[in-house]
Specification:
Strand content: 15-25%
Largest sheet: 10 strands, antiparallel
Bound molecules: flavin mononucleotide, manganese (II) ion
Structural class: alpha+beta
Shape: globular
Number of strands: 22
Number of helices: 13
């Protein structure tokens, strides 16, 4: 199992999924290459070197976890598992995670190079401008923001995007005031202080995943990342802030987030995971960077939002959450849950046992589908991770006049491109969701025409026996 990003990249290379890209321009080109690669069938991970304007060795790594295989690798789950089995393994693992407290170590490779105070120059790092209409370069698209709760000492370490503005100023963007980082920073600001923080780039992929997961207030993403790996995360006190920082990371910025009453900068716009821009420039809290540390030949981890179906993670982690929600609510016989189109479509597969079973599952899934307008429920002979299979079920088992329900004023967000600006301006960020029951009607399920298709189990047996012949 990998102990840091470099070892993870080595594992990706062993799988044959790494491509080396030499000479890309960090202004729009590097982002474009990342997006095109993410659209290829094998969706390779990319290690950029000799980036235009930067010395050889200063690198950017993208598409780290964009396939099911690499997402499983990052979760320390067998990457050979079929996607739905890998997601199921993750759901089971997440339910029984044994928290691992980080351990303090004496040295960190990121201390190989440090600059402080007036010598700090963010221009030394290849922050990409990911999309042509973005407001500027972003050093933080996959980096974690570390803060310490002044009351309890809890360390929060999650992902908020970070734009570079000057040689020592960046902005940190919270989507809403409920973000743990926003809650912690406000505590310092309310006391008239700046909030000490660190931006960690080129972190261990388990920390990248932990930084995305919804964890309860008070639980550290470090503990969760340790649980993913079944091994504690190494940490070391930052020389300037004293914050405990991941010792295996590539690049760290230390500094203070100033109260917005003292200073803000206009941040964005930034292309979002929906494939659209959601807002124009907006005032954002400013971090004054007082120290930069990095390993020799540092690797910046980048994960720009891209046009769907491309997404940061090749396994739909939020679908695993919905799968657990269904089980916790007592819905039996769930064969799988998946999300497509960058989480915007949720599919539940189940074995119907009673009238209303499918709708019960659909309603729970709809309630928990963030920004998703489409929820589909299919029978268990349909693979929810295969969009073609799902469309086959919709077109052959669903009578639209009878089997599509609409739920209004449901959970979306200000990032939703289809909500009118006037509504957003008055705080209305809900939308409607269609629940498509693409199951065979329960009332006459026994009389529904039998399918001619071979079962998943039969297909697997044939693949095992004849796969080599078929693939040539
Ligand atoms: C690549 C990526 C970028 C993200 N960017 C942001 C962002 O800019 N602002 C934000 O508030 N959330 C962002 N998120 C979502 C949060 O990281 C996520 O919801 C996290 O659980 C929030 O952590 P918290 O509960 O500790 O605040 C991003 C997630 C990912 C995977
Ligand atoms: Mn958190």
């Amino acid at each position: 199992m990998y102990t840091n990003l470099r070892e993870f990249i080595g594992e990706v290379e062993q799988l044959g999924a790494l491509r080396h890209v030499i000479g890309a321009d960090p202004h729009v080109e590097l982002g474009g290459i990342t997006e095109v690669a993410a659209g290829l069938p094998e969706c390779p991970a990319l290690l950029f070197d000799k980036i235009k304007g930067y010395p050889a060795g200063v690198r950017v790594f993208t598409n780290a976890t964009t396939t099911p295989q690499r997402a499983a690798l990052a979760l320390c789950i067998d990457p050979a598992l079929r996607p739905l089995d890998a997601l199921k393994a993750w759901m089971a693992k997440r339910q029984t995670l044994k928290v691992q407290m980080p351990v303090v170590v004496k040295d960190a490779a990121f201390l190989e190079n440090s600059t402080r105070g007036a010598k700090v120059d963010l221009g030394a790092l290849p922050a990409p401008t990911w999309h042509s209409k973005d407001g500027g370069p972003y050093i933080g698209s996959a980096s974690i923001v570390v803060m310490r709760d002044p009351d309890s000492g809890w360390i929060n370490a999650s992902i908020y995007r970070v734009q570079v503005h000057t040689r020592n100023k960046v902005t940190v963007q919270f989507d809403h005031q409920g973000r743990h980082g926003a809650i912690i920073a406000k505590k310092y600001w309310d006391q008239g202080k700046s909030c000490p923080l660190a931006i960690v780039s080129g972190e261990d992929p388990a920390l990248f995943i932990a930084g995305f997961e919804y964890l309860p207030e008070g639980q550290s993403e470090y503990d969760f990342a340790g649980a993913i790996k079944d091994a504690p995360i190494d940490v070391i006190a930052g020389p300037v802030t004293g914050l405990l920082l991941p010792a295996q990371a590539e690049i760290i910025l230390e500094g203070e987030l100033n109260p917005p009453s003292a200073e803000t900068l206009l941040e964005g716009p930034f292309g979002e995971f929906t494939g659209y821009y959601a807002a124009d420039k907006r005032p954002c809290p400013v971090m004054e960077v007082t120290a930069i540390h990095h390993r020799n030949d540092p690797i910046l981890l980048g994960s720009p939002p891209m046009k769907p179906p491309r997404f940061h993670f090749g396994l739909p982690f939020r679908a695993a959450g919905i799968w657990s929600n269904l089980e916790m609510a007592g819905v039996t016989d769930v064969a799988g849950v998946w999300q497509h189109v960058a989480q915007l479509v949720t599919v539940v597969a189940l074995r119907q046992r009673y009238a209303g079973h499918a709708k019960r599952a659909g309603l729970i899934a709809a309630a928990n589908s963030y920004m998703g307008r489409l929820v589909v429920v299919v029978d268990d002979d349909v693979d929810p991770s295969d969009l073609n299979d799902v469309m086959w079920a919709i077109t052959t088992r669903c009578e639209p006049a009878e089997q599509i329900d609409i739920v209004r004023e449901a959970w979306s967000s200000a990032l939703d491109p289809r909500i009118p600006a006037e509504d957003k301006a008055r705080g209305v960020t809900s939308h409607s969701k269609a629940i498509i029951d693409a199951c065979r009607p329960f009332g006459w399920i026994d009389r529904f025409p039998p399918t001619s298709a071979i079962s998943h189990a039969e297909a697997r047996a044939i693949e095992e026996k004849w796969g080599a012949v078929l693939r040539g």
